[in-house]
Design goal:
Blueprint (H helix, E strand, L loop, with lengths): L4 E10 L2 E11 L4 E5 L6 H8 L7 E6 L2 E3 L4 H6 L2 E4 L11 H5 L9 H5 L6 H14 L17 H15 L3 E5 L7 H16 L4 E4 L3 H7 L2 E6 L2 E6 L6 H9 L11
Parallel strand pairs: 3-8, 3-9, 6-7, 7-8
Antiparallel strand pairs: 1-2, 1-4, 4-5, 9-10
The protein binds adenosine-5'-triphosphate.
Length: about 260
Amino acid sequence: MTPVVSAKGIVKRYGHVTAIDHSDFELRPGEILAVIGDNGAGKSSIVKAICGATTPDEGEILIEGKPVKFSSPIEARDMGIEIVYQNLALSPALSIADNMFTGRELRKPGFLGKFLRMLDKPAMEKFAREKLTELGLMTVQSIKQPVETLSGGQRQGVAVARAAAFATKFIIMDEPTAALGVKESRKVLELIKDVRARGVPIILISHNMPHVFEVADRIHIHRLGKRLCTIDPKDYTMSDAVAFMTGAKEPPGQDAA
Ligand SMILES: Nc1ncnc2c1ncn2[C@@H]1O[C@H](COP(=O)(O)OP(=O)(O)OP(=O)(O)O)[C@@H](O)[C@H]1O
C-alpha cells in the first residue's frame, strides 16, 4: 500500500545544529503513528518539514507517492494536511465557529461574497455545529460562544474537530494532551481514536507513554536527529520504548513495524 507520507534522507540544519540528520519517515493509511524521542531529538523538526513549516536542506518527501516541495504550511493545508498544536492555536475572543474557519472563511454566494467579501456566518455556524456533533462535542452550549469561555479540554476538542473537518490527507498532533488534566486528556484521546475510525491517519508527537501505547498503531522512535526504528506497541513494553529512545537498549531493526 502506498504510504500517505514517506520521507527519505531528510536533513535540516539550523546554523551549526543538525536538527534532522538523514532521517526517514513513513505514515501509512488509516494509522495513528506516534513519534517519540528525547527532548531535542528532532521530532518537531521532522514533522515541520513534512507539513511545510520548514524547508529541508536535503531529502525527498512524497505524499501518496508524489514528490512535494511545500514552501509554506498554507500549501500543505490546501492539500488537506492539518495540524493541532499543544498550545491551542485558537483565538480566545472569537467564537467556536469563527475559529473553525480562520483563514478559510466562507463567503456569501454571488456578488455579496465575491465582491463585497461578505461572510456567510449561518453556513459556517451550521458546518461547525455538524462537525462538533459528529465528534460528540456538542456539550458546548453554543457555536457562537467565545472560545475563552470553554475548558481546556473543550478547546482542544474544537482544535481537533477543526482538523478533522478539513483534513483529507492526514493530521499532525503535537502534544495534544500536554496542557490537559486527566479527564480532559481522556476525552481528547477518544477523539483521536474517533478521527482514526473516520479513516484519517494521524501523526501524534507525545512524551506521554501511556497515551502513546493506548492509541498508536505504530511508534516511530527518533534519536539524535534520525529515525532509530519503528515498533509495534503490541510487541514491546513502555520501558523498552524508553530504553530504545534513550540509547539504554539496542533497538530492533529500522522497520520492526
Ligand atoms: N528554529 C530553530 N533554530 C535553531 N535550532 C533549532 C530550531 N528548531 C530546532 N532547533 C534545534 O534542533 C534540535 C531538534 O529540535 P526539535 O524541536 O525538533 O526536537 P524535539 O524532539 O521536538 O524536542 P522536544 O521534545 O524538546 O520538543 C534541537 O537541538 C533544537 O535546539
